[in-house]
Every structure is written in C-alpha cells, then in structure tokens.
Amino acid sequence: MTWWVDDIAIENADQLLRLYVDTDDNTPRMQQLSAVRDALFDNLEEVSSAAEVTGLIHWYLRDQQIVAHGETLDETADRLSDIDIEQDTDQYTDLIFRIKIAIERLDDIMLAEL
Fold it and tell me: What is the CB neighbour count within 10 angstroms for residue 112?
C-alpha cells in the first residue's frame, strides 16, 4: 500500500520512520505522518522488521506522553493496566491494545527469523 504525505510517497514503515525523524513535531506534516502510522497499526502484518515495529510503537507511546522508563513493552502495558485498575478508568485501554498487537507482531517476526 502507498500513502501520500504532501507529495512524498510512503510505501513502508522504514520510509515513514525516516520522515518522522526528519519532521518537526509542530508541523502539519507530523499530523499526516501520525495518521499513516495509525493506518500501519491496522495492518501491522505488513511491517516486516522488528526495528520498524519497535519504532512505530515507541513513536505512538511518545505521542501519548508515555515514557517507558527502560521497561519492556509488556512491562509498560502492565503498568498502564495497573493505572487503569487503580483509577477505575479505561484511559489506556486503546494504548494497551496497540502495545499488545505490537508485541504479538514482534513475536511473529522473531519466530519467522528462526
């Protein structure tokens, strides 16, 4: 699948992540890049490398103002789940779901490399 941001064709997560790194946070382009990232989460099986999956999920965490503090993705999801339980909210439900999908995709990639 190809996405267009301004007049730049983005065909994979690697291209998207490179543009993300080169784009200032407060630009309209960043909003477009974030939309492409979110679309990739809906088709994460199209992301072929662990580095790309990790980059996408950490970018998403950053956008949600979540700092991993050196935690694994599982630990981060568990921490957010604990916060939701303590506060009796579903504030992080979507984020936890995305983290779990990323973890599952990372596991699939690692198994395929064996």
Answer: 8
